[in-house]
Amino acid sequence: MFSKSKINEPGPKQAGSATDKPETAADAAKAGSTDKPAMPLTSNKPKPPASLLSSDLTIVGNLRTTGDIQVEGHVQGDIRAHLLTVGEGATIEGEIVADDIVVTGRVIGRVRGLKVRLTSTAKVEGDIIHKTIAIESGAHFEGSVQRQEDPLSGNGGAKRAAPAAAAPAPKNNGAEA
Fold this sequence. Notes:
The chain is 6% helix and 35% strand. It is built from 1 helix and 14 strands, in the order αββββββββββββββ. The strands form 2 sheets. Strands 1, 3, 4, 6, 8, 10, 12 and 14 form an 8-stranded parallel β-sheet that branches. Strands 2-5-7-9-11-13 form a 6-stranded parallel β-sheet, with no helix packed on it. The radius of gyration is 30 Å and the shape is globular.
């Protein structure tokens, strides 16, 4: 009669079948590598949208995320993110650290990022430590700009001298000089 192949159906395999047994160890290794698909290098999960801090929101405190943040309101504190967008009506008072930073609003404090972009409406009062920077015509900036290979490490560059290496001040013991 008719026979049906059970290649894709789960179930017990028949013993003694010549096609089920690899002939050599090399054949067994090849068979094992084709049974399971390779792990994908990237996740199939969609990237979540940026967290939005609306214009009527005021936050007092630090923010930290591995995702993206778009600030439209007022933040008094430090922000650390992957991508940080400072909206045109936003004000941030504190240090901002991110891989990518786009400023269209106001930042009062230090800016550290791999890629920093100040648009024509940006107002930054503070130092910028970056790997790459773009400043559009019309942007307002007061501070210093310093390029570093790893601006996210937190090494300010200007604070390289260790205060512990300095000689201790002599004790006065109440005597006037």
